[in-house]
Amino acid sequence: EGALELPVARFDKYLIVSDERYIILYDVVKMEMVWKTLISNVDLSKDLKMRLAINEKYVTLIKEDYDRKAIYCYSLATGDILWNTDPTNSGSPQPIYSMQLEGDMLYGIGEHPGQGFYFVSYDCVAGKKKTSKLLEGYSSPPIVKLRDHIYGKHVVVELMDRKNFEVIVLDKNTGEVVKKVADKGDGP
Fold it and tell me: What is the mean pLDDT of each successive set of 10 residues along the chain, which is 188 residues long?
């Protein structure tokens, strides 16, 4: 339920897009399609909401598998699914949003049922959760976004809680708060 975004992501010479049935990887230097993969478990009767992230090794996709949110990790080289959410296994990777890929790690914001959020990281090689740090204590369910860049050992989170705004610097390995700046405002 995040902000509207186009189903597109880019890294170096690669561009990944979707037509809501396939995800398609293009090499924009050679101006050719690298691979095209059918998106599975799609309800064609409604619009497909999705998020994509890409780096030199992986493509990640967040979408709804009919009535459940799911995450998929694909190999950039082949388009094969490396791992995904298994609805029968609560220990399998769960969807996140506002994703960033760096090397073999996927960072993002996990859903929280109340007035907080989770900072989550996954090891893309194994498809296992590495970090899940809860940050809570807000007056409403906050609107949270991970900045589009990873800063060395840190990630930066932008947060809006009604008229309270925060920029939070987190250690990307532990999720611990390194620095927080807060102020009041009147909108995004």
Answer: 76 94 96 95 84 96 90 96 93 91 96 92 96 94 92 96 96 97 88
What is the helix (H) or strand (E) element at residue 85, kind and residue range? none
54 burial type by CB count under 10 A (0-12 exposed, 13-18 middle, 19+ buried) = buried
* Backbone angles phi and psi of 52, in degrees to 5: -125, 145
Contact 150, 108 (CB under 8 A): no
- Residue 149 CA, chain-centre distance (Å), reads 13
Quickly tell me which residue has 């914001």 as its tokens.
109
What pTM did the predictor assign?
0.91
Which of 18, 58, 57 is CA-nearest to residue 39?
18
